[in-house]
Design brief:
By secondary structure, the chain is of the alpha+beta class. It has eleven helices and nine strands. It folds into two domains: about 80 residues, 434 Repressor (Amino-terminal Domain) (Orthogonal Bundle), CATH 1.10.260; about 140 residues, Umud Fragment, subunit A.
Length: about 270
């Protein structure tokens, strides 16, 4: 089997993705990924480039690097012990995740994405990529723009809502939180996490006591949970949302009872 076909199979498994999910990220059919991995087809250049972007490697590495060797590309194969050595986000290490300052400086130099009303949009179909490449300037620069007027000066990002947001099909506008201590307990945040992906939750800071955040959802079917602060890569404070769906009205029980009483009175009047 050609090395590139073997590499595709190994990389997908190392990323913990099914063929279906990997195909979705690459933008091809699942059957085509199966054909590549079994050596029944050779990817064209266009798909090779897509696969290398999804895996966050160069095209040359995809074609020529023997990924069946564990030490072939160590940064891609971090084990739990290596992850444990990474900086923790505590009151003494206040930045969520390890955010390379060069990333933002490159964005400022190469685009106008730092304008208050003109910033990057993270769509649901790239959530998995964002978790793996949130610190990759080239990936961020390729994200589409989103415009939203009249925001205060700051750094913003838009995230498409998932099932954990109360209004389906919304886009959540967020401002970047640089320090865990800046969290406002009970406020809603987008949390980019190492193991649980991108979450929308109310957050409560317990970093000094327990080294964790208490997370609560606005949807009653989602249970509250705790997450170690070291698992948090980025924190974004929700400041607004855009939706083509209107929120459901909150029906007051007292108003309903009043309407029932009025209806009963009207029926009694008609009968008399």
């Amino acid at each position: 089997m050609p090395l590139v076909n073997e590499n595709i199979r190994i990389l997908r498994r190392k990323m913990g993705l099914t063929q279906e999910k990997f195909a979705e990220l690459v933008g091809v059919k699942r059957s085509l990924i199966g054909a590549y991995e079994e050596g029944r087809a050779t990817p064209p250049t266009e798909n090779l480039l897509k696969i290398s972007r999804v895996c966050n490697i160069t095209l040359d590495q995809l074609l020529n690097q023997p990924f069946y060797k564990e030490n072939a590309f160590p940064s891609l194969f971090k084990n739990e012990a290596e992850q444990a050595k990474e900086p923790l986000v505590t009151s003494e290490s206040l930045k969520p995740g390890v955010r390379d300052e060069e990333v933002e400086s490159r964005i400022r130099e190469l685009s106008d994405s730092m304008q208050t009303d003109h910033f990057k949009l993270v769509s649901r179909d790239v959530f998995h990529q964002y978790v793996n490449q949130y610190n990759d300037a080239s990936f961020l620069l390729n994200l589409p723009y989103f415009q939203f007027p009249n925001l205060p000066k700051g750094e913003y990002r838009a995230f498409e809502s998932a099932e954990d947001f109360v209004i389906p099909g919304s886009t959540i506008i967020c401002s970047y939180v640089k320090q865990v201590e800046a969290l406002e307990n009970g406020h809603n945040y987008i949390l980019v996490t190492r193991k649980n992906g991108i979450l929308y939750r109310r957050a409560y800071d317990q970093s000094e006591l327990k080294g964790s955040l208490l997370l609560s959802s606005d949807k009653h079917e989602i249970a509250s949970s705790e997450i170690p602060v070291r698992e948090v890569l980025e924190i974004w404070k929700a400041v607004a949302y855009v939706s083509f769906s209107m929120p459901k009205p909150v029906v007051s029980l007292s108003n309903v009872e009043s309407l029932v009483d009025e209806l009963k009175s009207e029926i009694s009047r008609l009968r008399s």
